[in-house]
Amino acid sequence: MTDVVKNLKEIKKSLAAVPEKFNLGRVGYIPPHIIAVSKNHSKDKISVLLESGHRIFGENKVQEAYTKWPELKESYTDIELHLIGPLQSNKAKDAVRLFDVIHSIDREKIASAIAAEIKATGKSLQLYIQINTGEEEQKAGVMPKDADRFIKWCRDELHLPIKGLMCIPPVNEESAFHFALLKKIATRNGLEKLSMGMSSDFETAAGLGASYIRVGTAIFGERNV
Ligand SMILES: *Cc1c(COP(=O)(O)O)cnc(C)c1O
């Protein structure tokens, strides 16, 4: 069986070596938090990580998350659960109830549904806006040219607690360009947090200022879909 605890340790080691690897100098580097992406993985595997002390996890589907996390969150009350996948407005209610952070706000309908649910429940949540940095048709996310306007609308009209931006670079492109673009959009909008980097490119993301990296395969092994 995959040694998830060992894998997580290796990732932390790689993150600690990032300033040296990219010649950043140590000053100012804060290693990103690691979201252990447990989609398609069992509660048993998740529990091993929980027992080792890890508390930050991510899922990409609301429905799948409900099969695992309500119970786990009862046993470990300090879990920080992230929704990193696309969200439909009819799932907004369930999403707000279960998750602590949502990374995939990308259109008015979703933003409004979440705002309504936050208002109804009074739950304190952290939100990220997903940017489609590669401008890919099939991919979720706000187009870069619309980002400033959408961010402002979410804040000013809906008073949403927007903390940062998230992106998923196109598979066949250099991630660094997309991470840098995400940072640029965040900075000019006064947003501090960046959700970027996965198993294949988390070191690059860390070097470019990621606050959260989202790592599945490198921790849990291949997913059986
Ligand atoms: C699945 C997923 C990840 C993790 O991907 P790995 O390559 O397995 O690390 C990260 N972000 C999102 C949005 C995902 O859906």
Secondary structure elements and pairings:
Elements: H1 4-16, H2 18-21, E1 33-37, H3 43-51, E2 56-59, H4 62-75, E3 80-83, H5 92-98, E4 101-105, H6 108-121, E5 126-130, H7 144-156, E6 162-166, H8 175-188, E7 193-195, H9 202-207, E8 212-215, H10 217-220
Parallel strand pairs: 1-2, 1-8, 2-3, 3-4, 4-5, 5-6, 6-7
Residues 37, 39, 60, 84-85, 168, 198-199, 214-218 line the site of pyridoxal-5'-phosphate.
Let me know the number of strands.
8
Mean pLDDT: 96
Instruction: Kindly estimate the percentage of residues that lie in beta strands according to DSSP.
Output: 15-25%
Structural class: alpha/beta
Low-confidence stretches: none
Rg value: 17 Å
Gross geometry: globular
Helix content: 40-55%
Element string (H = helix, E = strand)? HHEHEHEHEHEHEHEHEH
Q: Give the names of the bound compounds.
A: pyridoxal-5'-phosphate
Sheet with the most strands, sense and barrel status:
8 strands, parallel
Counted by DSSP, the helix tally is 10
| Intertermini distance | 17 Å
Strand order within the widest sheet?
7-6-5-4-3-2-1-8
Explain this structure.
The protein has helices at residues 4-16, 18-21, 43-51, 62-75, 92-98, 108-121, 144-156, 175-188, 202-207, 217-220, and strands spanning 33-37, 56-59, 80-83, 101-105, 126-130, 162-166, 193-195, 212-215. The longest helix is centred in the N-terminal third of the chain and has 14 residues, at 62-75. An eight-stranded parallel beta sheet has the order 7-6-5-4-3-2-1-8. It is globular and about 45 Å long. The protein is built from ten helices and eight strands. The chain is α/β, with parallel strands linked by helices and 225 residues long. The structure holds pyridoxal-5'-phosphate. Residues 37, 39, 60, 84-85, 168, 198-199, 214-218 line the site of pyridoxal-5'-phosphate (PLP).
